[in-house]
Amino acid sequence: MKKLFTLALAAATLAGFSACSNDEENNIDSTKGYINLGVTIDNTLATRAIQDAPVAKWYAVVTNEDGDYVYGTAGSKDLIGTTLSTKPLAAGSYNVAVANFATNDAWLTANDGFGAAYYEGNASEQTVTAGQTTDVDIDCGKAKNAKFNIVSSGFSGTALTVNVTAPRTLTFDKTATPSTIGKDAFFAPKAQLTYTITYTINGNTKTSDAKTITLGEAGSASTLTIKSNKNGTISVSITYDDAYNGGTTDEIEIDAATGDEVVKP
């Protein structure tokens, strides 16, 4: 688990208020309270940028006990920044939701369309008391989407491209600069990927028939491993690894001459 930096500005402001009785000088309404956020994630799938991001760079939506939005909207969370920590709230009960993207599907367009791990969580019935700061710690757990990548360390050809055509179009190209083979891509949990493999071995270029695989659950990592032998036969292993250890492997072979899947006895 990874604990992100808490947003401590409100606590510091309140400490200044407690030490001085001049409310006007400190510009604090003693009839209001504040929220100080902390977020914890399971960082198995998170990039370093996500792991190191302070809470201020996350997004939040806050509703009161009547369901009214006091921060963010029904359609989009607002960047936390320093605004939420200094926002005075009437004493009462609040529901707080956080995420590392403003909307549920904004992660899809990150990293040139390859996506990013998406985390969200909420804390209900958080009591805000007048003249105090309420610490709200939210455990987001595992990523809500699934990771997919391609490994080709056992491939001996001169060119390799994997084209994903559904549920969205992505190209993994070994000859790209930098190579996108090995780059992480993110999809919805249990997404069905349709892909073709185009490769050049011994001067011959072939494209496989379209294949379909189903990714794992939320927070899982699925890896497509591509190898080749001296005769040009392609071996494709698909590893589903929900816990990033163990997992199961499915294997297929693609004939070098035709690009068709080999029917095993």
Q: Helicity level, as a percent range?
A: under 10%
Largest sheet, in brief, is:
5 strands, antiparallel
Which overall shape is indicated by the principal axes computed on the Cα atoms?
Answer: elongated
- Estimated radius of gyration: 25 Å
Approximately how much beta-strand content do the residues carry? 35-45%
What's the rounded overall pLDDT mean?
A: 82
What multimeric state do the chains show? Answer: single chain
Number of E strands: 19
- The SS-based structural class is mainly beta
User: How far is it from the N-terminal to the C-terminal residue, by CA?
Assistant: 45 Å
| Helix and strand sequence | EHHEHEEEEEEEEEEEEEEEEE
| Uncertain regions spanning at least 5 consecutive residues | 7-26, 242-247
Number of helices: 3
Structure report:
The strands form four sheets. Strands 3, 4, 5, 7 and 8 form a five-stranded antiparallel sheet that branches. Strands 13-10-17-18-19 form a five-stranded mixed sheet, with no helix packed on it. Strands 11, 12, 14, 15 and 16 form a five-stranded antiparallel sheet that branches. Helices cover 7% and strands 44% of the residues. It is mainly β and 265 residues long. It starts with a strand and ends in an 11-residue tail after the last strand. It has helices at residues 9-18, 23-26, 48-52, and strands at residues 2-3, 32-41, 59-64, 69-71, 78-79, 89-90, 92-99, 120-128, 133-141, 146-154, 159-166, 170-173, 185-187, 192-201, 204-207, 211-214, 221-228, 234-241, 248-254. It contains three helices and 19 strands. It is elongated.
